[in-house]
User: What shape does this take?
Amino acid sequence: MNDLERGSGFHVGRTPAGRFARWVLVPVVGVLVLCAAVPALASARVGWRLNGTPLTESVGNSWKGKVKLADTKASVPMTVECEETAEGSSGTGGAGEVTKWTMSGCVGLEGCGKTGVEVTSLNLPWHSELAVVEGTLRDVLASGGKGTPGFKLVCKVLGLRVEDECSGTFRPTTTNTESGVTAAFNKAEKLTCLFGGAASGYLEGSQSITANGGGKLSTENESPPVWLRNGVQLSSPAAIGWKGTVTLSDTGAVGKLAVKCEDTGTGLAGAGYAGEMTTWTLSGCAPVAGSACVSSASIEALHLPWHTELFTLEGAVRDVLAGTGKGTPGFKLKCKTATETVTDECGQAPTTTMTNSGNAVTAAFNKEAFSCTLGHASAGELEGSQTVTLETGEQLHVS
Assistant: This one.
């Protein structure tokens, strides 16, 4: 042991002798659940959104920013600053993951020399979970199964190379911005470090979190709309039916394909904001004006049953349709053109705008872009309107 180690408490190049206590996070139930599992009374929920719509499947995300890492109780206190990039995903129900975290351009601010500073992440991947902590929405980063999240710091102190490790649960505060989500680490939340011990370290700084595939990523913390029977929130799932017309089109195919059908369906309005679309039958289909289809037109719903979930966007109540594990909600269009019989499949999690009308709810599709097999990623479109009623004949509304 050299003089620096003997007098300061530093252990040059030494790794921790034991593991730090693991913080356990109980995951929040996913937002898209079976109707029977929805609580009788809906409460505030948190989650990720893309372009204002709750996520129905995971999307890749990227983090970018600058952070300070410090061990304030080491014999020689150390603080460094690094630029940072990270990769991971945002999922349903507020859950997510951090799979990669890279520190670069690190410099010493206190204790460590200005140059030769290295910081690396420990125990990736990390699990993430949106949660309200002390009244503030945060993205809690906890163990993904390999150990407590943390960082290893290597720098020169008084000319000698030293290694330190700081670990703990990171709980950055999230804020929605014009470009995405900002996550701010709070230096008041302490980490356990190898040299300084418990509550000796902190991580401070701000990150920008954006969706890899485009679109605006945001977080939600709201009391969602709910299903009402005769003005009272449903206490258990209730059978519903719907009836209307839909038009499916693919403008990216060779010659526009567009077919309009009458439709009927059955499902459930859940206790709270969730529901289910169980069956959907489309009949009386015919090509629309301007379509390359000329006869034998049909549309078939794919991958039923679908989950549904009420949410609010720009003051309007909407319902998003999501898969149940069998595949993305979608439709198969089939028709005869002047030269051949064509089959096209279009998939997306469509949404409807929900309006109370008499004793029923009118659900109007919002013409979001679909991905189609014969067209391109945003060539498909679904439009039309449905009347949704309770099978008992009682009044069905949304709050």
In short: DSSP finds one helix and 30 strands in the chain. The longest strand covers residues 95-110. The chain has two domains: 3-221, 224-398.
